[in-house]
Amino acid sequence: MARASLTQGSESGKDLWPLAIKMPHATASECRQWSAPTEGTIKINSDASYLPDTGNCWAGALARNYRGQIMLCIGKQMLTSNSVEEAEAKAALCGLQTLASIYTGPVEVELDCRSVIKELSAAGPSLSPCYAVIQDIKATLCQFASHKLSFAGRECNKLAHELATEARKVGDLHIVGGVPERLRAMMLKECSTHPE
C-alpha cells in the first residue's frame, strides 16, 4: 500500500478517511481520558501485556486523528522481553512501524511508561537495557514529518492495553478504521462528548 498523509486537507490521504469509524467530534478538552492530538496530527497510543515469569509479551497500539477516529489498531505477540520496560518499548516500536507503513505525516506518541519516554527524549546515548529497541524507535520516528512524545497515565491508555490483552487471549489482530467489537464501547467512552 502506498504511504499517505491522513490529514483531511491532503489529497493523498482522502481515500483513507472513509475507513475511520465515524465518531462525534471531540476536542482535547472534551475527551474524558484520552486527549486528542492537534488537527493534522495522528496520535498513537501503545501498551504491552507482559508476563514476567516467562517474558512473553504482546503489543497493543492504535492510531487516532484529532477527532478521535481510529485509523488503525493492532494487537500482536512479540518476542520475549527481559523487563516490562522492554515490552513497553517493543509495543511502541510495533505500533510506530505499522503506522509508518501507511502514514508519514506528523505523529504524537503517547505511552504510559515514563522510563521509555525519558530514554526516547534523551539527546545523548541511551544506557537503557533495551538500548537496541530505543534506537529502533528513534530511527522509526525519523520516517515521520515530525513527532512529539508524551506521557499518559494508565487511565488514558486503557484501549491500547486492552488491545494487547486481546492479542494475548485470541491472537494477533490488525484492523484498519476500527477496533474489535468487544472494545467498541470503551473506544466510544474514551472520547464521548456527552456527560454520563
Characterization of the model:
The chain is built from 5 helices and 6 strands. With 196 residues, the chain is an alpha/beta fold. It has helices at 84-100, 114-121, 131-141, 158-170, 184-190; strands at residues 42-50, 57-64, 70-78, 107-111, 147-151, 173-176. The model is unreliable at 1-32 (pLDDT under 50). The protein is globular, with a radius of gyration of 16 Å. The protein has one domain: Ribonuclease H-like superfamily/Ribonuclease H (Nucleotidyltransferase, domain 5, 2-Layer Sandwich), CATH 3.30.420.10. Helix 1 (84-100) packs parallel to helix 3. It has a 6-stranded mixed β-sheet. Strand 2 (57-64) and strand 3 (70-78) form a beta hairpin.
Topology:
Layout: E1 42-50, E2 57-64, E3 70-78, H1 84-100, E4 107-111, H2 114-121, H3 131-141, E5 147-151, H4 158-170, E6 173-176, H5 184-190
Parallel strand pairs: 1-4, 4-5
Antiparallel strand pairs: 1-2, 2-3, 3-6
Radius of gyration: 16 Å
- The coarse silhouette is globular
For the record, the CATH class is Alpha Beta
Main pleated-sheet profile: 6 strands, mixed
Helix content: 25-40%
Outline of the structure:
The chain has 196 residues and is α/β, with parallel strands linked by helices. The chain has five helices and six strands, in the order E-E-E-H-E-H-H-E-H-E-H.
